[in-house]
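We were asked to recover a plausible sequence for a given structure. The inputs and outputs are reproduced exactly as logged, with field labels preserved.

PROBLEM: sequence recovery
POSITIONS: 275
GIVEN STRUCTURE:
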C-alpha cells in the first residue's frame, strides 16, 4: 500500500526575504506542489530563491474545493506545501480547511516555525507579553465588531490586532469608545526598510496623532488594568459567603485567588467581621 504524503504549512517572510528558514527552502524545493494564496506574489519569492516547484492557487475563495483536490493528492502519496502571501498559514490566512481535511484523512501535517507578524510586534512593544490574546482582524460588520470589543473590554491580557492602513482611523475610534484610554503600540512595515514602532496611547491617536498610513499594521494594546479591591468590598463578600455557609478556610482560599490579595489580608478581615 502506498504511503500517504505530508502536508507542510510553511511560513514565508513578512518583508525581509532573509527571514525565510533553511528548512522552509528545502521543503519548498522538494514537495510536489505548493498551494499559494497568490501565485503571482509567491512566484516572485520562488524565483528569488531559484525554486521551480509548481504553484497552485489556494485562497479563501476556493479553499474548500481546492482542499478536497489537494487532500486526494496527499492520500495518493504526494507531498504538498501551503504558503500565504506573508507569515504563517492559518494566522489570519487560509489553511484551516485543508489542515482539517488532511487530519480527517489520516495525513501527517507539519507546521514549520518561522515568520509571523504579531510576535515581533508584541515583544518589541514594551507591553506585557506573559499572557496575550491574539484577535487578528476585527469583523467587518459593525454589530459583530462592537460585540467583540465589548467582550474584550475586561480582558486583563495584552490584546493584539491586525489592521489594514485604510481602517486605522475607524479602528482607533472604536478602541477609544469601547476600551477607553490605554497604552498602545502600532507596529508598521515589520522587517522592512521603513519599519516603525509608534508607542503611544489610544487617546493620543484618537486626538489625531500623525501616523503614516502605509503598509500593514499590528496593534498591541494594554489589557484592562486591575483596580485594587477595597476592604469594604472584601468585607461585603466575606459576609455573603458566610451567609451562604462557607467556612473561614473556604472564604480565605476563594477570595485570595479570586481577588488576587494575600491570605493574611483576608484573615484579618475575617477576624474583624466576626468581632
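RECOVERED SEQUENCE:
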Amino acid at each position: 500500500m502506498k504511503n500517504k504524503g505530508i502536508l507542510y504549512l510553511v511560513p514565508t517572510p513578512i518583508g525581509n526575504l532573509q527571514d525565510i528558514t533553511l528548512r522552509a527552502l528545502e521543503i519548498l524545493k522538494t514537495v510536489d506542489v505548493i498551494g499559494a494564496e497568490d501565485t503571482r506574489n509567491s512566484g516572485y519569492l520562488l524565483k528569488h530563491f531559484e525554486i521551480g516547484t509548481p504553484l497552485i492557487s489556494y485562497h479563501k475563495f476556493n479553499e474548500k474545493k481546492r482542499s478536497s483536490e489537494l487532500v486526494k493528492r496527499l492520500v495518493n502519496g504526494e507531498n504538498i506545501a501551503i504558503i500565504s502571501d506573508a507569515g504563517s498559514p492559518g494566522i489570519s490566512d487560509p489553511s484551516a480547511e485543508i489542515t482539517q481535511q488532511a487530519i480527517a484523512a489520516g495525513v501527517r501535517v507539519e507546521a514549520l516555525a518561522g515568520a509571523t507578524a504579531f510576535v515581533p510586534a508584541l515583544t518589541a512593544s514594551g507591553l506585557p507579553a506573559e499572557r496575550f490574546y491574539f484577535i487578528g482582524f476585527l469583523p467587518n460588520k459593525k454589530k459583530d465588531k462592537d460585540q467583540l470589543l465589548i467582550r474584550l473590554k475586561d480582558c486583563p491580557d495584552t490584546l493584539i490586532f491586525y489592521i489594514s492602513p485604510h481602517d486605522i482611523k475607524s479602528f482607533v475610534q472604536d478602541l477609544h469608545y469601547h476600551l477607553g484610554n490605554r497604552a498602545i503600540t502600532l507596529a508598521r512595515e515589520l522587517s522592512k526598510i521603513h519599519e516603525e514602532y509608534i508607542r503611544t496611547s489610544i487617546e493620543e491617536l484618537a486626538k489625531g496623532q500623525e501616523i503614516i498610513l502605509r503598509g500593514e499594521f499590528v496593534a498591541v494594546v494594554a489589557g484592562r488594568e486591575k483596580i485594587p479591591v477595597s476592604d469594604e468590598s472584601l468585607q461585603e463578600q466575606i459576609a455573603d459567603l458566610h451567609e451562604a455557609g462557607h467556612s473561614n478556610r473556604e472564604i480565605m482560599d476563594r477570595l485570595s485567588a479570586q481577588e488576587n490579595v494575600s491570605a493574611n489580608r483576608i484573615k484579618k478581615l475575617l477576624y474583624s467581621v466576626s468581632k
